[in-house]
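Structure ticket #2291
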Amino acid sequence: MFIDDNLTQDRGYAMDLFRGLMPLKKIWVTQVSVEVADDLELLGAMRRAGCIGVFIGLESFSDSALCSQNKVIKAPSCYQEAVRRFHEHGMYVEAGLIFGFDTDTAGIFRSTLDILDQIGIDLIQASILTPLPGTVLFETMKHRITDRDWAHYDYQHVVFRPKQISAKDLQAGYEWLNKQYYRPPKIIRRLVRWLGMPGGWRNAVYPLFLNIAYWGRQIRFRYHGYDPAIFADH
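Resolution: structure written out below.
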């Protein structure tokens, strides 16, 4: 894996890198911006260089949440088209998601799950908004922090008072979404899709392994949860 928040930010450098990788026959994944899907020449070079998967930090499908972070959201149909192009080039797509923005309500988990299924995301790495000490976020939220056990600052625990929902519902919704997304029947349906992508079994084994690993985490960390839109903590 190329550990780079956006490997293709410098397009010229990226194209030189991919040309250098092509004869090496390596298999790799990396992080990119969703806009890479609009550059078919770049996608083709990535594919020929051995890229089989990309991580994209979508963060949220909520307009208001992303606007609060000075980021712009695209319509689900745009994401769906981008994912389709990555798939056509034999690349699975992992989406980074964050829950706990001040604008997030009880319905954010169900709506996110529906959109993920709609646009064909292959994996998710979901996190809970975490104000790490020493950051601007920590300073702006310190009057709302309820837990100063630094072991809980792992993006899996709620350590502050959310605005729109309770801390209990945020934690439960996060766990519920993970469990729902990585249910074995859903993994099997995604496997069928991966087998139809360029590379077939050769490439499908990687997202399959990761899906199973994420499913195993639900058991290891004893995720339970519930849909706050239905069973909100009042």
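Closing remark: The longest strand covers residues 51-59.
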